[in-house]
Amino acid sequence: MKIIDYKRSELFMPYGYTGKILRIDLSNNRIWIDKHDELWYRTYMGGGCIGAWYMLKEMKKGIDPLTPGNMLIFSLSPIVGAPVPTTGRVCISCKSPLTNAFGESQMGGYFGPELKFAGWDAVVVEGKAKKPVYIWIKDDKIEIRDASNIWGKSIGESQDIIQSELEDSRIRVANIGPAGEKLVRFACVINNKKNACGRTGIGAVMGSKNLKAIAVRGSGNFNAKDLSSLREKAKWFNKNFMNNPSDRSLNLNGTADIIDDMNERGMLPTRNFKKGYFESASMITGEKMKETILIKNEGCYACPVRCKRIVATNEEWKVDPSYGGPEYETIGAFGSNCEVSDLAAIAKANEICNRYGMDTISSGVCISFAMECFEKGIITVQDVNGLDLKWGNAKAMVKLTEMIGNREGFGDILAEGTKRAAEKIGKDSQQYAMQVKGQELPLHEPRLKVNVGIGYALSELGADHTRVEHDTDFDLYAPEIFIEQAKTLGLLERLPNDQIIEVKVRQYYYLQHHFSMLDTLCCCFYGFAPVRAYTMTDLVEIVNAVTGWETSLWELMKLGERRWNMTKIFNLREGIGVKDDWLPERFFTSLENGVAKGKALDKEEFKNALKLFYEMANWEPDTTIPRRAKLIELDLKWLADLWLEWVDKK
Amino acid sequence: MKIIDYKRSELFMPYGYTGKILRIDLSNNRIWIDKHDELWYRTYMGGGCIGAWYMLKEMKKGIDPLTPGNMLIFSLSPIVGAPVPTTGRVCISCKSPLTNAFGESQMGGYFGPELKFAGWDAVVVEGKAKKPVYIWIKDDKIEIRDASNIWGKSIGESQDIIQSELEDSRIRVANIGPAGEKLVRFACVINNKKNACGRTGIGAVMGSKNLKAIAVRGSGNFNAKDLSSLREKAKWFNKNFMNNPSDRSLNLNGTADIIDDMNERGMLPTRNFKKGYFESASMITGEKMKETILIKNEGCYACPVRCKRIVATNEEWKVDPSYGGPEYETIGAFGSNCEVSDLAAIAKANEICNRYGMDTISSGVCISFAMECFEKGIITVQDVNGLDLKWGNAKAMVKLTEMIGNREGFGDILAEGTKRAAEKIGKDSQQYAMQVKGQELPLHEPRLKVNVGIGYALSELGADHTRVEHDTDFDLYAPEIFIEQAKTLGLLERLPNDQIIEVKVRQYYYLQHHFSMLDTLCCCFYGFAPVRAYTMTDLVEIVNAVTGWETSLWELMKLGERRWNMTKIFNLREGIGVKDDWLPERFFTSLENGVAKGKALDKEEFKNALKLFYEMANWEPDTTIPRRAKLIELDLKWLADLWLEWVDKK
Asked: Is A472's pLDDT higher than 50?
């Protein structure tokens, strides 16, 4: 293996935090290591910041995301693998085949920590293997292995085969299923059969590289400057998370705990986002799941919350428990948004998504899109291979999900995502495509959660609820906790969730730094975001205990801001810009039922909010190009210079 | 007393941190109390943020600073009076008679804590008393008392008389001397006879109100949510400050400890900033002071550093020890910058300044200005009342200092500050006026400390070294400490002090937030700035221990940024803008001696640095008007709205 050093500057760096990054070029069977200095690690730390760094430095402009020139970057952060709850996610970045923009998704489970124990901070994959392969990482030993025998196999089967082939059931596998192989544009990468990097079509990129899986086993320990203070943090969390209303409800009822509340507030996306109230919502709640199909809880590395559901059904759907149970988003997408009230059918759709390896949000919203097109007569029974796509038809919903995974019949069209599907279908069907930048909306109602709506429009990833998550939760669960933690960010006032006002944009702006910071550090927001168990101070202390640094919330918030500015520049280079920051027309029309019936976003107000955000971000408001001074302020002078080069070449 | 409530919004505020602000209208003998909610205290906290809030809300535009419409705002912060070192300063704000811009200065000593123990967070004085008065604050009991018997008296005498009249030698007195009464434009307010709010002419404003002094005695305790953790912080500091190279040298040799180093580096301002090397520097160092005239150290409330010098001389100058000894700035101004090497004479000039109550920096730089005019033949012996103003003439220097305090002869002209004096003198003398926005330069060489130079040009207060203090210190004393603490702010690289480069502006920008934060919290930078004993984390923890809040360095840095944006808007309203952000021509010409001989700032580079800063600050770069989005981001929507009103009225 060749070792390449990246040095930004000679500088005084007394902490000695270092790492190494594994590089693999599948086209040429090359494996090498990138060594960066501590300054680099401290500047970019992890997650999408590392992903964006490589994509901006090395990826050619304008490539088709499904060609070998795309990169697939698995990245951790210094705190991934620390023996504390909710800091063990892995991030995958690439150019998205769904949006043609920056693609990124994160997953929990055990893969991230295992990669860390093997000694790696990131794995950067590029090129395309001549035939199906998987990568086997055993500490320093790296193999590119033949995967012909598992190509075509489901997520579960292929994981099992790899573990048995390598004779170690504790190997962690991040793999794609048939959906990824067939380049379903919202295919995902899954580890542990149920923890998914669901969004932006990362699985299709992995498929396009003929890469079935990355398997990893590490024998190293987690290195920390102050392990005992990490243990204290974990101890505190394990003892106290059940006192936190939010983490408690996650433990008891999973993420679907909020369904009833959402419905009562008229913000449960129903009938492809036309409505905010679903009459049968009580049939699909987290509590109902507990009473019916739940068999146990599971969790991620070092986490006591155990919010993951394991479900089984003996009835017609025969759900395989090894694929887990449906999350809130999944239930919203396949359930209320398709007006399906059969929880077992929803669990089946979830199982299919995990088996084929595809995103439950995009899959479900593709189906509600199809149902609405069907209702409007834009597509007919013939178009959809004989399915009766009427609202609430659980059987048709489950069948169509599987057809997407197989790219079979009408499923092949939906496998392109709603934006491309609408282009193919034509006849104004585009108005029923609930997507931004090509990615389908998560199940949060922008008319009532204004911050989330602004986030949908602005996110570099396309519609994405992790940009500013769940602003309504602040009210729903624990305002007194929110207010305490949000104040740490300088957000001193509780603001209405459903009104676009100038000071709301300020709240959005700070929260966006914050959520981006959590993502860059590969943290689960259920541990750290406002309303959660840990405080922001805990996060800073965890980073310091691991690295020996003396960082601060200032530096970490700037890290978050750095990430979204880097991804923004990537998008601008790829031609995704201000024109793409908008919501589907539907959200400027009235909600059709529920307590918030009649509620609509005001177009002018929404536009003004975006403009105000651009100015706040120190971007040129007409073009959304980050001003040179902003990039330099974020320690991204090299990127400011690169941008000038790119502009010159135009 | 009438009580007026300011409420921004009804909000959830569980900490219960509150305070009260004393209002006094001297014109109408009115006394009342402002009660603000906790949100207000958390948003503005203290210092110049409180000062600017009142000045922006209540002061009429365009007033002459020496008329009753000016306000004089003594403000503390939540942590003033806490039983920890270096958090006990008091801030005074007003419209400056020296610059016509925002005026502000801070002083240590004991006045701030005493005001806090009396129950007040700020005292806002407006109007003008019909005859000389002083204000007597005994807890809740407020009196406006006759001061005819002390008008005309020195700082020392008037303090003694007040204490004896009120029969309590522990009363703390902040007062003006004859210079303030005579409206010397750089007159100061002093407490404890030697702790001065030196800059921007606050003493003249106090004089213009016929207000001789504020005397205060408080019988309350300091309230803190977690007193024991404050005690821990103090214990740690008391035990460890001598291990910190910077605080140790401050203790041993006072602020003048740096003279030798500065000289060797060619950056000791000499001969009115023409030179960077003073041949006789070794005669005026902190060490020389210790060997000769020093009789003891003194310090401020709760502080073990005791950097204040107490000096006495029996020779011709007969320095009164009760006025303390000269600081670095004072020695630079009266010493090297006038090429005076007689330390006792410098100590005498310092004593005169404290006795008359005027700023040692402006006084000294006025004299070096006069000496250069004299050298160039622009003014003659006749013009200066027979003084032989040649470089290095200690006697003439001391005499002229006293003449300024008395506004006697040529002293009357210099009492207007170098900018106005040069206008009176004419004949191109303006080129020798080392001032920005009308305020004289502190004794730091912009050609070699680029950040300080940028700070001189940009500071809303006029030339001011507290905007970004001493960037060279990072190298001088303790790079390993600097790098550790600066990284907390996200400054990861050591940059050359003497080069204008883009990333240097980034460093300046963050450090400016930082120093402004320290000022807003009324902290002494010798405890907290990079290279100092406490870390930034300590500061956050101290604020939290006092208030019960869970603040962060993010919120506090934004507080600092809020302050300089508020003062910027004040200046813009008063017509002080982009045209006033510049250095004297001299600094674009070569240093004439020392190791850095030949060094000059590049005009184009300097201009570009300012432009880059404006963009970084999210101000319109051509006008330096903060963009509306920036003000809203800083939680200053009310100010953004006010600004629009003001613009409309134009």
From this structure: no
Q: Which CATH number fits domain A450-649: 1.20.210.10, 1.10.10.10, 1.20.1050.10, 1.10.599.10?
A: 1.10.599.10
User: Which tokens go with B353?
Assistant: 């300044």
Contact B11/A489, CB-based, under 8 Å? no
Q: Report yes or no: B140 at the A interface, CB cutoff 8 Å.
A: no
List where CATH 1.10.569.10 sits in chain A. Answer: 256-440
A29 touches chain B (CB under 8 A): no
Confidence band, pLDDT 50/70/90 cuts, at residue B12: very low
Assigned CATH for A2-217: 3.60.9.10
Mean pLDDT along residues B6-22:
67
Indicate the residue type of B590: S
Phi, psi of A314 (to 5 degrees): -100, -5
Q: Residue B315 carries which side chain, given as an amino acid letter?
A: E
Which A residues 548-607 touch B at CB under 8 Å? 549-555, 557-558
Contacts of A233 (CB under 8 A, 6+ apart): A84, A534, A538, A541, A542, A545
**CA geometry: angle B407, B574, B5, nearest 5 deg:** 100
Q: Which of A42, A492, A534 to mutate to test the interface with B (most CBs of B within 10 A)?
A: A492
Segment A252-280, tens digit of pLDDT: 999 999 899 899 999 999 999 999 999 99
- B632–A618 CB contact, under 8 Å: no
Q: Which pLDDT belongs to residue A485?
A: 75
CB contact under 8 A, A492 and B558: no
With contact defined as beta carbons under 8 Å apart, do B70 and B61 qualify?
no
Q: Mean pLDDT over all residues of chain B?
A: 93
Residue contact A615–B637, C-beta within 8 A? no
Strands A122-126 and A21-25, sheet pairing: parallel
Does B223 touch chain A if contact means CB atoms closer than 8 Å?
Answer: no
- What pLDDT is stored for residue A12 in this prediction? 46
Contact (CB<8Å) B629/A637: no
Chain centroid, CA B107 distance in Å: 7
Report the pLDDT averaged over residues A441-455: 93
The answer to whether the beta carbons of residues A124 and A21 sit under 8 Å apart is yes
Q: In this predicted structure, what is the pLDDT of residue A256?
A: 93
Test mutation, B15, B536, B552, chain A, max A CBs within 10 A: B552
Ranges for all domains in chain B classified under CATH 3.60.9.10: 2-217
| Mean pLDDT calculated for residue range A284-308 | 95
CB of A9 less than 8 A from some CB of B: yes
Strand partners, A543: none
From B488, B505, B615, residue closest to A555, measured CB to CB: B488
DSSP B331: I
B157 CB contacts (<8 Å, ≥6 apart)?
Answer: B150
Q: Which residues of B touch A554 (CB under 8 A)?
A: 488-490, 552-554, 557
Residues of chain A with CATH 1.10.599.10: 450-649
Tally A–B CB contacts below 8 A: 151
DSSP one-letter string for B403-425 = HHHHT-THHHHHTTHHHHHHHHH
Contact B552 A551 (CB under 8 A): no
Residue of chain A whose Cα is closest to the Cα of B495: A11
Domain A256-440 belongs in CATH node 1.10.569.10: yes
pLDDT for residue B15 = 65
What pTM does this model have?
0.96
Between positions 504 and 523 of A, the ones with CB within 8 A of B are: 505-506, 509
pLDDT for B477 equals 47
Distance from CA of A558 to the nearest CA of B (A): 8
CB B104 within 8 A of CB B208: no
pLDDT at B345 over 90: yes
Selection from B419, B62, B4, B63 nearest residue B209 by Cα: B63
